[in-house]
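wait is this the right file?? whatever heres the structure
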């Protein structure tokens, strides 16, 4: 396709095998990222992770880590990582600098207890009794820019009451980080459970 020269220049100028100081600062203030994984057969999955700034921890220039809380039980991402440790993380700053950062690397699962023994300064969840079930530790293999030209400018807005009547706001920052409350997680927003129940009753 005639892009070899451009690709070589990009790799030579923009792709690192670790985080530089500006990348580390960028990671430390992110409140969300997109995660790509694949199982042992190469079947892909993409998902979204979010939390307060700093939930994606920069342990050092070559290592990131983030907490995993109890979810829907499918374990798509963690299951994939057990079979295939290669992950892709995409962070996008939609509101301040309109720029993105890709981090590709190898992930491993670490229990909360083991992670805190190795890194005693990790933040503690502000909700009493709620702790991560697991941490995902990522060894950085590639870190590079995602250009800003197609990133929209987004402005944070206060959360509203959901369609199922559940209040989505919680805590000082209005966010229900890591909640296990079904309604506050979105309930049956796409009505799949209700439709299946309706079909079963016919």
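ok assuming it is, sequence goes like this
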């Amino acid at each position: 396709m005639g892009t070899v020269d451009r690709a070589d220049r990009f790799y030579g100028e923009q792709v690192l095998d670790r985080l530089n100081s500006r990348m580390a600062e960028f990671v430390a203030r992110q409140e969300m990222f997109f995660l790509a994984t694949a199982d042992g057969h190469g079947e892909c999955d993409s998902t979204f992770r979010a939390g307060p700034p700093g939930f994606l921890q920069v342990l050092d220039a070559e290592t990131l880590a983030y907490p995993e809380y109890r979810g829907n039980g499918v374990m798509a991402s963690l299951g994939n990582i057990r079979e295939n440790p290669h992950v892709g993380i995409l962070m996008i700053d939609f509101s301040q600098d309109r720029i993105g950062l890709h981090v590709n690397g190898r992930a491993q699962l670490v229990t909360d207890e083991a992670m805190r023994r190795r890194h005693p300064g990790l933040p503690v969840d502000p909700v009493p009794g709620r702790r991560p079930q697991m941490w995902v530790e990522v060894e950085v293999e590639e870190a590079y820019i995602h250009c800003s030209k197609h990133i929209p400018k987004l402005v944070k807005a206060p959360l509203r009451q959901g369609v199922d009547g559940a209040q989505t706001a919680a805590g000082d920052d209005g966010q229900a980080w890591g909640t296990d409350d079904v309604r506050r997680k979105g309930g049956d927003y796409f009505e799949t459970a209700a439709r299946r129940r309706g079909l079963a009753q016919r």
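The helical segments are 4-14, 21-28, 76-83, 112-118, 192-200. so i think its the right one actually
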